[in-house]
Design goal:
This protein is globular. The protein is mainly beta and about 375 residues long. Helix content is about 5%, strand content about 45%.
């Protein structure tokens, strides 16, 4: 059963921000601006539900997977949206930390809920020293050569009682049953690492991975690019391709990879990513940005050459679901995308709001591309 949805907070208590959006095309919030997924009474997701991958199923792939995801009685033909989301309980009994799990929900393209599983599809390792024993976080799902790959952040304990975050990979043929392939190798996981996502196409026969090592201070963080022989490596890391831009209102800013890049043809991709900002007053704001990557320009001597255009702040927290953070461990003023896809003339963005809910929005595909292309690097 779903937990009662909290009422929208009094505007006087909402923790806002002073950042303003750039000249990006209008973002239309879907489902009336309300969450498509919120916490329930189930023990593993009664705290927060956020940061989700999203896959659009159409045509033959919809026909193949609908009986598995919705049951044999499904006779529909309309496209489906499959959302894998991060969930964390208010109290993970038997564990010192509240670990994250991955849940699954299936929607229509208008975000009418068709099915939501009452058990996770991916859980932390039972071995207390396992590579993701402290949580499976922020899943991003990419279909490559007929196989679905989930890149997620696996959190593991360290001998000094700290934790280690690693880019990890799992695979599935049906979006329901997942086989863990383990952490990426040391070429990628040389530091604490988060925000891994695979491109939907190979480049010169190689898998392409974006990731964000936590090297130096947050202001030093860069989205890096690696090529792999398989989805689990071995990897060759090319280094940083995109960092944060100066923000006068901010003490520091940092970037991280976002949703699965959207292919534009000829090796070009629309990349939606995030920037986190620490304001001068100590508050934090997470925004969504967009860039165009051209893999034909990939050069080991200058990996940044692949970034041809970028437009910051295409989306900022605006609604109470995005600004307010009711859970004690949540962060307010957050929009954080792990899943985007093309549908019709739009790009739909499925994103976490306020570190607590999952929401959806859309923007005109060509309008967004045109806006980004007006800002060459």
């Amino acid at each position: 059963m779903y937990a009662a949805r909290p009422s929208s907070p009094d505007p006087a208590t909402v923790r806002g921000h002073m950042l303003t959006a750039t000249a990006a095309p209008p973002i239309e919030r879907l489902n009336g601006g309300d969450p498509i997924i919120a916490p329930t009474d189930l023990w593993w997701e009664n705290g927060v539900t956020f940061n989700s991958g999203a896959v659009l199923l159409e045509g033959s792939e919809r026909a193949r997977l609908a009986p598995i995801l919705l049951g044999p009685d499904d006779v529909g033909t309309d496209p489906l949206v499959v959302v894998h989301y991060r969930a964390r309980p208010m109290r993970d009994e038997g564990h010192a930390l509240n670990r994250s799990y991955v849940g699954l929900a299936v929607f229509t393209t208008e975000f009418q809920l068709l099915r939501r599983l009452d058990v996770p599809v991916l859980s932390p390792e039972s071995d207390v020293l396992g590579f993701d024993a402290l949580g499976v976080e922020d899943p991003r799902i990419t279909l490559i050569d007929g196989v679905y790959y989930m890149v997620y952040c696996g959190v593991a304990p360290r001998a000094d009682a700290g934790w280690r975050a690693q880019v990890c990979v799992a695979r599935s043929s049906n979006l329901l049953d997942w086989e863990k392939l383990g952490p990426a190798d040391a070429a990628v996981n040389f530091e604490n690492n988060k925000d891994g996502v695979l491109f939907p196409e190979r480049h010169d026969g190689s898998f392409v991975l974006l990731h964000r090592p936590m090297t130096g201070t947050p202001a030093d963080y860069c989205i890096e690019l690696a090529l792999g022989e398989t989805a689990s490596g071995p990897w060759t890391n090319y280094g940083g391709v995109l960092g944060s831009t100066p923000c006068p209102e901010c003490r520091e800013s940092w970037v991280g990879a976002g949703s699965v890049p959207i292919a534009l043809g000829d090796g070009r991709y629309l990349v939606i990513y995030h920037t986190g900002n620490r304001l001068h007053d100590g508050g934090r704001v997470y925004q969504l940005d967009a860039a165009i990557f051209d893999l034909a320009r990939l050069d080991a001597a200058d990996p940044t050459a692949i970034v041809t255009h970028r437009l910051d702040r295409i989306m900022l927290p605006e609604t109470s679901w995005e600004i307010d953070a009711p859970y004690p461990d949540s962060v307010g003023n957050v929009v954080f995308a792990c899943g985007s896809y093309e549908y019709g003339e739009h790009i739909t963005i499925v994103y976490g709001g306020g570190d607590t809910y999952i929401l959806a929005a859309r923007v005109g595909r060509q309008a967004l591309i045109d806006a980004v292309e007006r800002h060459p690097v």
